[in-house]
Amino acid sequence: MSALVLAGGQVLADGVIDFNVGALGRNFWSLTVSGLTYGSIYALVAVGYTLVYGVLRLINFAHSEIFMLGMFGQYATLMLLGFNPSGDVFQQGVLLTIVFLGVAMVGGMAVSGGAAVVLERVAYRPLRRRGAPALVFLITAIGASFVIQEFVHFVLPKLTGNALGGVNAQQPIRLVQPSTQFELFGANVTNVDLVIVVAALALAFAVDRFVNATKFGRGIRAVAQDPVTATLMGVSRERIIVLTFLVGGMLAGAAALLYTLRVPSGVIYSGGFILGLKAFSAAVLGGIGNLRGALLGGLLLGVMELYGQALFGTEWRDVVAFVLLILVLMFRPTGILGESLGKARA
Amino acid sequence: MRTRTPRVAGLALVLAAGLAVAGCADRSTDGGTAADPSASGSAAEDGGGSAADLAIQPLVQVDAEGAEVAAGGDGTEAADPAGDGSATCDGVAIAMAGALTGPNAALGTNILNGAQLAVTQHNEANPGCQVELKQFDTQGDPQAATQVAPAIVSDASVIGLLGPAFSGETNATGPIFNQANLLSLTASATNPSLTTNGWTNFFRGLGNDNSQGAAVANYLTGELGFGTVCVVQDDSDYGIGLAEVVTETLGDAANPDCAAEVKTGDKDFSATVQIIADAEPDAVYYAGYYAEAAPLLSQLRSGGVEAAFASGDGSNDGQFVSQAGSDAEGAYLSCPCGPAPEPFAADYEAAFGQVPGVYSVEGYDLATIMLAGIDSGVTDRAALVEFVSGYSGVGLAKPYEWDSTGELASTTTWLYEVQ
């Protein structure tokens, strides 16, 4: 089917990659629906990368761990609300479930937002005070990422009497049983898909308004555009930086709840790494530093990687994501929407 | 500024409303729980009830053809570590090497405790022969194991080794033990290639992945009568090897269109689920570990796939049930390891405060064989290797008799069902 054949008919490699066009065609719409749900989660996490990059020119690689802490945050909130993990779905009324999910989301956002601010204060601010070069920030971010992971891996179980953290994934707390609500061109759209996409779009809209239409947002854009002038105009750069980390962290916390709805057994210390990498790619894909670019990049990446997975085979999912990134950057080096946060309409 | 103010106010209003809703929600759930226990409290219990009752139960013992083999017995005919109580020996020890700390410590501890029970029973019955069990922690890591191995070899009192526990560390340390001609009797390393190295000191106390894969594949198509099976594998040596054997043995029943590969650490399998749902198989076989098997099974079920689910010893762990919850019900899990019979299980629980785990029985049986050697007058390493290669007897789990490569002459696989 896809053999590499040398001149003379010698087969060099057979079946390295099978193009399963049939699978893609048959499942196109259901892959699109799944892709959009993952894409909207990527998009929310990508906002954290892009905002921090816009303001500090820093790739905050520890953001994936902020997301991971958000998963634990919402999990702990649910435990405090009286849910004992059992691996089964809790049958609550629709209304009560929404309320519990809302509270869990606030819990996740609080933990993630708080952790992001602490991270900024502990890891990045001292470096900024000393005027450390950009490379040092990058290494610090990677180091912080490991520290947070291992904290959840080894320290958190001791602090919580083995209720949270450790080597195994948390036993799932499932509030929503996925059930098909309606069909879209033959693809089943479940209640979980709906909740994820709607919540993510609402949050994306809110953060877009926040950055583009509020006083705080204008501060963020001003610092991104020209930190010195912004400071001269009376914008407190340090406060804007804290705010940026807070907003990015809170969105990651919200994304963490949505992700856990889709993947209930994903709450584990290593659970943020790959997703963070994907979200970072989404941010670059859309144009890093560009808020709307991050949202677009997230949705696009989520959909494309599922198409690619159906086309080439499930083990190629991550490869597809990064090949797509490289291809786009070859033709549009600054990403799809290109413009940075600072250059956007001020 | 004027145009901004209403927006800021609007945002603040939304925020405040959100906080109020959250606050109210919090209070109302508290109230709900206190006033009406059915609100969240009993719902939680109801939810937990069915899943908590689920456990991995032994179903049947099969040979490589998938045919049922009568269970080994109730343990009455099995070799007893106590012997006849008149053995004499002096200053001999056996070693146990495996993961005793680290993420895989549970498995090493299961084996160690089984062996410890055998040694304790032996020493109590034989005042003239006190054998010491020395433990060496490899963390299950090949690199750590190569640092521990020389310490085992240089301890002159150690005449036999129970372990190493995992395939990777066994592969890494095999030459060291072979050179020292120290008996290496593993209770859990199942990679088939380990017995192809020409190590004369290495014996495997259980069936390898080949026999397990063939047995479960034949059982799925034979006894259970499944016509099409999707084989999903992870990217570990274990999963790849197991999937290969299963696919081969299934033959036409294995549907190549839905053969999928997942990666260790993956938690989301939407495309895999889609492909499997498309193929509408009778069963799904997963070759890999519980960390991926549980979410895969859950997502298959919520994706509308009702096919039977089967997996190997990598998923044969309580974590599989606790992660997948009631979705785990009816899943078939194979293992070359046998269930713990009474009175062994009761003795084990009395000694260690927990029920026997996977490979505890094998640890007990293999330690018993080494103790029988010591009781028969063996005092050095070469003689113990000699003793084991000529050994033939029945243990708690199964008969033990090895061929010239160090594989068991007859292997059986146990099938378990979550119920």
What does this protein look like?
By secondary structure, chain A is mainly α. Chain A has a single domain, classed as ABC transporter involved in vitamin B12 uptake, BtuC (Orthogonal Bundle). Chain A contains 12 helices and 4 strands, in the order ββαααααββααααααα. Chain A has a two-stranded antiparallel sheet. The longest helix of chain A has 36 residues, at 94-129. Chain A is globular. The model of chain A is unreliable at 1-9 (pLDDT under 50). With 419 residues, chain B is α/β, with parallel strands linked by helices. Chain B has 2 domains: 53-57 and 210-335, 3-Layer(aba) Sandwich (Rossmann fold); 74-206 and 338-397, Response regulator (Rossmann fold, 3-Layer(aba) Sandwich), CATH 3.40.50. Helices cover 43% and strands 16% of the residues of chain B. Chain B has 13 helices and 15 strands. Chain B has helices at 4-35, 41-52, 105-125, 142-154, 167-179, 209-221, 237-250, 270-279, 290-302, 318-324, 344-352, 360-375, 381-389; strands at 56-62, 68-69, 93-98, 132-137, 158-162, 183-186, 202-204, 229-233, 260-261, 283-287, 308-311, 332-335, 392-394, 399-401, 413-418. In chain B, helix 7 links the parallel strand 8 and strand 9. Chain B is elongated. The termini of chain B are far apart. The relative contact order of chain B is 0.15. Chains A and B meet through helix 2, helix 4, helix 6 and helix 11 of A and helix 1, helix 2, strand 9, helix 8 and helix 9 of B.
